[in-house]
Amino acid sequence: MGDDPRARCLDGAAAGLGISGLIRNRRLDAIAGVSLAGIALALIATMLGGSPAFVALRDKAVTGTIGFAFLISALIGKPLLYPIARATMARESAESLARFEAMRGSDELHRTVMTMTWVWGLGLVGEVTLSVLLYRLLPLGAYLGVGPLVGYGSIGALALWTLLYRRRRQGIVMAPLGEQRPE
Hints:
mainly alpha
């Protein structure tokens, strides 16, 4: 994301969302934890400074770390998106959280969260890979213009996929509870 002030504002807004949940709930949920971990990794990367390549790609180190963490968690069968999904349900409503908790041992819920974890992990690692390739192939100025578009475009595509996938899977996952799919 480089030193583009617009990118930094979007980063700050995302971090603010996680931190506001921490302050509001007075506890560290998964969303606040990921936000704080991302901030910490970004600060460490910034303090390291380094070559023009490292400076241009330092935010990708955070993205790649999170992507690999998702992939490793899926490989060992403990999807990191489960606590994030749970935190999202808790933020929506107590009823949403109760429904989510009622399905905790469900094969369908596990399959859904595993799929989401794999897709996000592969998507984040793919975005980093594409960014590194673009950095290597394009002049620095061109990369600095295109890099944020790739990053935010990837996150936007993953978020849209998640929204659509969640809607599609919600009826399947909730069926054992005898609930109808929300419209």
